[in-house]
């Protein structure tokens, strides 16, 4: 693999590399990438789908590699890491520059006046308040402001108190731009030989016209099976009446312009979409909906024109933030109105709510809707914006379907007239899967549903108990992971961590350090998590990871395949599931010494016709449908 990557970087021909778990693919591409960058002076970008793999490369793979090969390089290599803005502390927000977004201070802190001097201080009154205090203290000592560098993790809600997203960021108009952690990271990247980033940043850089990454002649894309979905997510936008109202309120407060048009448009949008059920707008916008969206676009355009800064107002952070929100409304409404002439589709969605003990319930149709716009395919954008301007190496454990690279290549824009040339190679895996791992399919369980959850949880509890912990439980949704963790914490004596309790890197580190600890999570843990040894001897998957049946984007893709005469279910849903099953199964065996059980708690893998297709994507573990056999194997592993 190292030789093939080196050849690709040297001759400029794109390369797809399927490399099974345990190949050492990170080292296999980092070595030629470093050599190429240092020797030619042309930076190489490495993009991952997950923060977990990003942390692994920066925290483990690169330090060891550089220590080993530094004498072989013509000069020392410079490395940089670039993430999205929301991963860094925002000094402007810490200084009180975003009053609209501040949490109610009374909910976080209790005011206390010191006896001498009458100075008012604030003491945290809740877990959230204590976390915010810790973050503010850390802000005074950290050199990076990177959330993953926190000595101990914090909740997502606490982190939002000290960070901003790309829309709310003031950019160059910020008074703290020169000392901004995010900007300092990007400045370091300008001087680096190797830049580590993620697929979302790559998409924004390639397709949105924003120079968020340094110039580079080559990019290596790890977890490449996720590229199309991550790019799609990066270019998906949303609109709501609340978003329009927030833009209007911000504009009125910081620019003093007339926002009656925006407020009327927010009412019109809510009226036009308020009674619409969740799902794809298969026929596009009706007349009332189109008129409402058009009124929002026109009002946002007028407000942008009326709020143009002059003189000292140009440096006002409030005005800058307000105009950023107005621009976001204009951009999404313009795109919605153009969707009938593009590959974009529009759908309506309302978030569900989680109640402890009752799980998730879908929000009522009377709840305010969110409107989403996304492309059904990004192949054209990738073919032009990514592969047309640099050398690209893509690698993953799952790049072939039925031993062919063509399905993945087609989704990347690498097939058809005028497509760039590329090579594909499968370098295999060093593991003896039938001897090292067992595949247990719980054939006796009812097909997954709300009614079957108790039986599934009981099965999972028995497996974890037999294993004595050391379980990575992978779920097809965040809600399923959280509810399972809540339920099993009451019945099991082993520690159970759940995605969202802390940063991903902190959770994985805690899971790896204690072989009784279990980790429950969803898609971010299905890949990029490398925990070898006894800390992970059971990987359990709750259900075949098909797209949700009400997933509007996948429904639109299936409809397009069906119109072209294909099988929408197999080409979209089953292929999606096959790739993710393979990734989840790959968490179990990480070295030649590892042993463990992969438990699939979805009987459809054994009973449905498509089961054999899905199994072909997974490692060829020794298979059984006997739960006693699986539990005895786990007990032996626990006691060995």
Automatic annotation (TrEMBL):
Chain intervals for the UniProt region annotation (Disordered): 303-322
Catalytic activity: ATP + H2O = ADP + phosphate + H(+)
GO biological process, one term: nucleobase-containing compound metabolic process
Record Pfam families: DEAD, DEAD_2, Helicase_C_2
Keywords associated with the record: ATP-binding, DNA-binding, Helicase, Hydrolase, Iron, Iron-sulfur, Isomerase, Metal-binding, Nucleotide-binding
Cofactor: [4Fe-4S] cluster
Protein name: ATP-dependent helicase DinG
């Amino acid at each position: 693999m190292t030789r093939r990557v080196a050849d690709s970087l040297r001759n400029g021909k794109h390369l797809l590399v399927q490399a099974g778990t345990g190949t050492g693919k990170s080292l296999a591409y980092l070595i030629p990438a470093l050599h190429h960058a240092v020797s030619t002076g042309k930076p190489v970008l490495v993009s991952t789908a997950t923060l977990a793999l990003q942390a692994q490369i920066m925290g483990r793979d690169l330090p060891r590699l550089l220590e080993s090969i530094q004498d072989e390089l013509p000069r020392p290599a410079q490395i940089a890491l670039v993430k999205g803005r929301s991963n860094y502390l925002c000094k402007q927000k810490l200084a009180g520059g975003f009053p609209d977004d501040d949490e109610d201070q009374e909910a976080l802190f209790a005011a206390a006046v010191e006896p001498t001097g009458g100075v008012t201080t604030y003491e945290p009154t809740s877990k959230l308040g204590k976390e915010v205090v810790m973050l503010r203290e850390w802000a005074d000592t950290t050199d990076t402001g990177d959330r993953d560098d926190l000595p101990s993790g914090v909740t997502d809600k606490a982190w939002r108190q000290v960070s901003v997203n790309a829309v709310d960021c003031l950019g160059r108009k910020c008074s703290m731009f020169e000392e901004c952690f995010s900007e300092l990271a990007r400045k370091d990247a300008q001087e680096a030989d190797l830049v580590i980033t993620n697929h979302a940043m790559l998409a924004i850089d390639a397709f949105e016209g924003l120079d968020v990454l340094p110039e580079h002649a080559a990019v290596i894309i790890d977890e490449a099976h996720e590229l199309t979905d991550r790019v799609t997510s990066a270019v998906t936008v949303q609109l709501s009446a609340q978003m329009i109202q927030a833009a209007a309120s911000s504009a009125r407060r910081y620019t003093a312009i007339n926002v009656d048009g925006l407020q009327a448009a927010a009412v019109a949008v809510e009226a036009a979409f308020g009674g619409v059920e969740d799902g794809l707008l298969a026929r596009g916008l009706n007349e009332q909906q189109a008129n409402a969206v058009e009124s929002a676009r026109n009002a946002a355009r007028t407000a942008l024109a009326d709020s143009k800064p002059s003189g000292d107002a140009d440096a006002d952070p409030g005005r800058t933030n307000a105009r950023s929100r107005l621009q976001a409304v204009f951009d999404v409404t313009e795109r919605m109105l153009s969707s009938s002439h593009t590959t974009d589709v529009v759908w309506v969605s309302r978030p569900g709510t989680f109640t402890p003990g009752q799980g998730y319930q879908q929000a009522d149709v009377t709840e305010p809707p969110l409107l989403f716009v996304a492309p059904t395919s990004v192949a054209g954008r990738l073919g032009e914006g990514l592969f047309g301007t640099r050398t690209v190496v893509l690698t993953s454990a799952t790049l072939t379907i039925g031993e062919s690279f063509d399905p993945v290549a087609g989704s990347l824009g690498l097939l058809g007239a005028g497509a760039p040339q590329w090579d594909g190679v499968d370098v295999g895996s060093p593991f003896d899967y039938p001897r090292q791992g067992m595949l247990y399919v719980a054939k006796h369980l009812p097909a997954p549903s709300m009614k079957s959850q108790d039986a599934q949880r009981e099965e999972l509890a028995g497996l974890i108990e037999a294993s004595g912990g050391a379980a990575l439980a992978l779920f097809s949704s965040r809600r399923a992971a959280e509810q399972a963790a809540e339920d099993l914490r009451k019945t099991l004596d082993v520690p159970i961590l759940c995605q969202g309790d802390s940063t991903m890197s902190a959770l994985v580190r805690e899971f790896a350090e204690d072989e009784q600890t279990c980790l429950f999570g969803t898609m971010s843990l299905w890949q990029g998590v490398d925990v070898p040894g006894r800390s992970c001897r059971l990987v359990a998957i709750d259900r075949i990871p098909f797209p949700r049946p009400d997933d509007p984007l996948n429904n639109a893709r299936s409809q397009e395949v069906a119109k072209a005469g294909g099988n929408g279910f197999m080409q979209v849903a089953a292929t999606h599931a096959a790739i993710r099953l393979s990734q989840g199964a790959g968490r179990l065996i990480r070295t030649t010494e590892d042993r463990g059980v992969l438990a699939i708690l979805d009987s459809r893998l054994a009973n449905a016709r498509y089961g054999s297709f899905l199994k072909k994507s997974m490692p060829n573990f020794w298979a059984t449908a006997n739960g006693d056999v699986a539990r005895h194997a786990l007990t032996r592993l626990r006691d060995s």
